Amino acid sequence: MFSITQQINDQGHLQIGGIDTVALAAEFGTPLYVLDEEDFRSRCREYQRAFHTLKPDVGISYASKALLNLAVCRIIEQEGLGLDVASGGELFTAAQAAFPANRITMHGNNKSEEELCQALTIGVGTIVVDNFLELETLQSLLSPQQELRILLRVAPSIDPETHPYIRTGQTDTKFGFAVLTGDLLRAVSRVRDDSRLELAGFHCHIGSQITDLKFFEETTATMAQIAADIRDETGYATAELNIGGGLGVRYLPGDSLPDLKTYAQTIVGTLRARCAELNMPEPALLIEPGRSLVAEAGITLYRVGAIKQAPLPKGGARTYLSVDGGLSDNPRPQMYQARYHAILANKADQPAQFSYRIAGKHCETDTLIPEVLLPEAAPGDLLAIFSTGAYNASMSSNYNRLPRPAMALVRDGQADLIVQRETLTEVTQMDRLPERLR
Ligand code: LLP
After folding, report:
1. What homologous superfamily does CATH list for 7-35+296-428?
2. Separation of 289 CA from ligand 1 center, angstroms?
3. pTM, whole model, 2 decimals?
4. 207: which DSSP letter?
5. Could you identify the atom of ligand 1 that is nearest to the CA of residue 153?
6. Which residue has a Cα nearest atom 20 of ligand 1?
């Protein structure tokens, strides 16, 4: 499960980015999100290499919903990727980091007028228009001379194997213009009637944590078909097709994944073959990976607290090991039955032979890991959970009024705080007490 810089050091501790995790926990406290900069950057490069050797005009944008802060924006900018944002908050973060606006794509199925104004003011490169209300709002906001590059989001009617909550491209969906009802065709006509709007092409996203390549193949083929149908009906030739998020990732040691080269070959090969069959010039391709760029570059460090045994109805007992975080820093096990793997970071060289259930500290059964083998654990040990870089910090909360963890960026033996730990004062600072309750 180790990222490229993770290893076990001479003291038998887990090390990441050249730093002992025991030292990281001592310096920054726990729970602590740790982001391995070299691993993150190398995944950005690997994506570019995999696609650009096959097709130079592939645009890769990082889906910032996976993990976003100022440092992440800088890394993405330096690696030459674009940035996808899906809310005013994500866009504001990008602007605070001075991310080049023309490399930003704005998403969302219910962008507010305020968010659209913000996007126009900042001058984002592309807005992915989801619905007719958004189209009308945009048209009302644009001045007669103003120009805007857009993609139309399509519901491609593809239902991939992944958790139902993270499927987004099926027929029965809130996202995009339906093809079957003729909405997409009507949207294309409206856009083409407005000379201020440059229709660059079509966008779709079928879901996340998808590991079977056949769904990426189906998506690419479907998008090419949709583009050809639109061409046949309207004469519009699409310049770009955006097929949404990237490959799934490894959460457990037994998980196997297609490699990026095969993934890129599947997508580019399908596009090429379908365009030839449809007698259509090959459009530029865009992809927006989030999870696969950052999930495995992140770990979370927790301090082990209470350890207890609970008798099981059929005999025997289960050992519960509670940590100092849980649902608030990682809601994914409860939301999506997501599975994770862990080790004792301060006993990383010892054989893992005792079974534990890893519990959070919240006032409900917030199991982080139903069962994992560890060396014999004691209060004060340090637990490292792997593959927590994506959709953990970004979906964290203050449940039970827990302050959100800090995040450290590690590289070549250096650790920098990139997100400060919240304080209890910050957790309560938005509360207001009306006069009549004083
Ligand atoms: N593009 C669009 C329009 C998206 O909606 C998403 C993710 C992505 C790209 C990036 O997909 P990825 O490469 O990360 O698979 N909170 C959930 C994940 C929701 C993903 C939603 N959209 C989770 O924790 O599993």
Report:
1. Lyase, Ornithine Decarboxylase; Chain A, domain 1 (2.40.37.10)
2. 8
3. 0.97
4. B
5. 3
6. 208
